[in-house]
Design brief:
Largest sheet: 7 strands, antiparallel
Helix content: 25-40%
Shape: globular
Structural class: alpha+beta
Protein name: LRAT domain-containing protein
Number of domains: 1
Oligomer: single chain
Number of helices: 7
Pfam family, one: LRAT
Number of strands: 14
InterPro entries: LRAT_dom, Papain-like_cys_pep_sf
CATH architecture: Alpha-Beta Complex
CATH superfamily: endopeptidase domain like (from Nostoc punctiforme)
Organism: Patagioenas fasciata monilis
Length: about 210
């Protein structure tokens, strides 16, 4: 596992968040591609090797602010067939709107990989060493697309979501259920929200 030298920006940042496990998880992945309790389990791969379960790190936005482009990343997961799935705060597409401790409505969605790359710019691609269980991964994708969650930059963000799909981090979500005309429930509508600490979990600095 990477270790930052005392006094560096990364060591100060890690020290500041060490008491906040969820924020620490996101920052460790962002800066070292390691996960507390799992160690260094990711390797960088090229776009030509892209496969389902790979994590994509895009610039938060396409601004000319170099610092923002380096420090703030948006995570997505490649699903296969040219599609990605990602989680973001609804109506808050850029870094300046998301640097806040405020909780906002979240949006889990699928999008074309090429379209997302055209919108945000080129990405870095990381793969879990040893690969992923595709059957379990696809099951989690299906569950995620029938879920909703509150977005929080520190507590419940795109990196937590991405890691949850790989079984590496908890994600605070509430399964969406609606009633059809016959009275039986099915996925796809409004739900009663649970507090984050009690909400259902997927098996996941940032947007």
């Amino acid at each position: 596992m990477d270790r930052a030298c005392p006094g560096t920006a990364r060591s100060r940042w890690e020290g500041r968040v060490s008491g906040n496990t969820r924020e620490y998880v996101a920052l460790k992945f962002l800066f070292t591609k390691s996960i507390p309790g799992h160690g260094d389990i990711f390797e960088e791969v090229s776009e030509s090797e892209l496969q389902p379960g790979d994590i994509l790190l895009f610039p938060m936005d396409r601004s000319n602010d170099i610092i923002s482009r380096i420090l703030f990343k948006h995570a997505a997961i490649y699903c296969g067939d040219g599609e990605v799935i990602h989680f973001q705060g609804a109506g808050t597409p850029n870094s300046s709107a998301l640097i806040s401790s405020q909780t906002t409505p979240g949006l889990i969605s699928k999008q074309g990989y090429t379209a997302l790359k055209n919108d945000r710019g080129n990405c870095q691609i990381y793969r879990k060493k040893g690969g992923v269980d595709l059957r379990a991964f696809r099951s989690k994708l299906k569950k995620a697309m029938n879920s909703e969650a509150e977005y929080s930059l520190y507590k419940n963000n795109c990196i937590h979501f991405a890691l949850s799909l790989l079984g590496l981090e908890k994600f605070y979500s509430q399964l969406v259920q609606i009633q059809d005309e016959g009275g039986s429930s099915r996925s796809g509508g409004a739900a009663n929200r649970c507090p984050p600490s009690r909400a259902g979990q997927g098996s996941s600095h940032t947007a």
